[in-house]
Amino acid sequence: MCTTCRSPAKAPTTGSADERRRTRSGWRGQGGLPDRWRRPGVGKPDRGIASGVCRRGISPGSTVTPGARVAAAIGVLDDILHGAPAERALTGWARGSRFAGSKDRAAVRDHVFDVLRAKRSLAARGGAMTGRALMLALAMRDGLDIAALFHGEGHAPQPMSDAERDHLATSPAMTLAEAHDIPEWLWPLWLDSLGDNAQTAAAAQQTRADVYLRVNRTRGTVTDAIATLAADDITAVAHPSVPFCLRVTGNTRRIKNAGAYVDGLVELQDAASQFAVSAVPVPPGGRILDYCAGGGGKALAFADQHGAQVFAHDIAPRRMKDLPVRAARAQVHVAQLQTAVLPQAPLFDVVFCDAPCSGSGTWRRTPDAKWRLTVDDLAALHDTQDQVISAAARLVGASGMLVYATCSVLEHENDAVVARFRAAHSGWRVVATHHLLPGPDWDGFFMCCMACDEINL
């Protein structure tokens, strides 16, 4: 699994839960953020919030109104703009706002991630790269009642100024990259990779992603799962093209406590990952290795769908710590293998290699990653991908299958990696290639199935 971007095991939220980091208990100051993230002005009361109110927008004894939630989002966004990773900024705010309930935390999180998905275009519309301008632009874009959110009473931000109102009434000129919320330096690569689909794929990343479930076939049917979810007031429909996949259409935040999930009837997993597993040819009784397993979502899917021996490996074994619990819940068996024992292990019929990547196909789930990616990061990922695919190939047995996959839509991380690998390793032929674009049915995903008729020595 590409650990840069996805998290099948956590509760469905507007951003990737596997990316969460715990803040240190010793951090001091407003928001619990470390001193190295502080910049001039950060940590001072936000001028857009009524005087005497915590810049986070919530204080003891308060009623958390929609305006207060917006004020809290403004504070979190300002921390992010000054260098704090999104998850840490949100965690710091939550720890400093003990009186905020779960619905308040979810609402603030939604505001923050809605902004991050469209940060560049919203900054252009709002007239500044500040939390306040971004939230004003978001409210305008989504047709919200700005006067009901920005009124300066209680804990709400101050009303719009005449200058803010005038700017929001204009249509600012934007570059294509800015309008589609892609970093300017990345736009040429985005165009080269996606061609006529570049703008559509970028636009899909500006909106929230749906939540998908995989029905464990050994536990029940799609009909069973839909009915069991409905008993907990969760609505879901069958995916139009991926078997045993459900799109959740209502009450997504109840899933982790729902009977269907707790009892192992369903598992959280994006539709693209489910498609990928179903598209891999697996021989009966074969040996399957999920080489970059991460949380082990694909290993669990392989174990559920095939009468095969399934193994999971990750260079950082701690990422698989929840795999035994998840496997027990699904009533499947997945054996974990450490890196040191792989050279001595019997070769595999299928090695699925979901390599570390930019996550550019899933940026609507982890929008902060889009803005943090640099040219140097992408170059380093290319080197890692070359190393990973070559190492995985050595574990494939005669007539076996090597599957190279990423959740990226960038050609340099996908077809180019396969081309370099095949140029350096003779005998490998491409059996099938799939390019999935981010859209209404799944996230962006790439996979290439390769076969070699010779044992890799």
Features:
alpha/beta; seven-stranded mixed β-sheet; four-stranded antiparallel β-sheet; Alpha-Beta Plaits
Topology:
Blueprint: H1 66-81, H2 86-96, H3 102-117, H4 119-126, H5 131-141, H6 146-149, H7 162-168, H8 176-179, H9 187-194, H10 198-204, E1 211-215, H11 222-230, E2 235-238, E3 245-250, H12 259-262, E4 266-268, H13 271-278, E5 287-290, H14 297-305, E6 309-312, H15 323-330, E7 335-336, E8 348-354, H16 367-372, H17 375-393, E9 396-406, H18 415-424, E10 428-436, E11 445-452
Parallel strand pairs: 5-6, 5-8, 6-7, 8-9
Antiparallel strand pairs: 1-3, 1-4, 2-3, 9-11, 10-11
Q: How does this structure look, described?
A:
By secondary structure, this protein is of the alpha/beta class. Among the domains are: 33-174, no CATH class; 210-269, 2-Layer Sandwich (Alpha-Beta Plaits), CATH 3.30.70. Helix content is 36%, strand content 14%. It contains 18 helices and 11 strands. It has helices at residues 66-81, 86-96, 102-117, 119-126, 131-141, 146-149, 162-168, 176-179, 187-194, 198-204, 222-230, 259-262, 271-278, 297-305, 323-330, 367-372, 375-393, 415-424, and strands at 211-215, 235-238, 245-250, 266-268, 287-290, 309-312, 335-336, 348-354, 396-406, 428-436, 445-452. The strands form 2 sheets. The protein has a 7-stranded mixed β-sheet with strand order 7-6-5-8-9-11-10, sandwiched between helices. It has a 4-stranded antiparallel β-sheet with strand order 2-3-1-4. Helix 14 links the parallel strand 5 (287-290) and strand 6. Helix 4 crosses helix 5 (131-141), helix 13 (271-278) crosses helix 14 and helix 17 (375-393) crosses helix 18. The longest helix has 19 residues, at 375-393. It is globular. The two termini are 25 Å apart. 49% of the residues are buried. Mean pLDDT is 88; it is low at 4-57.
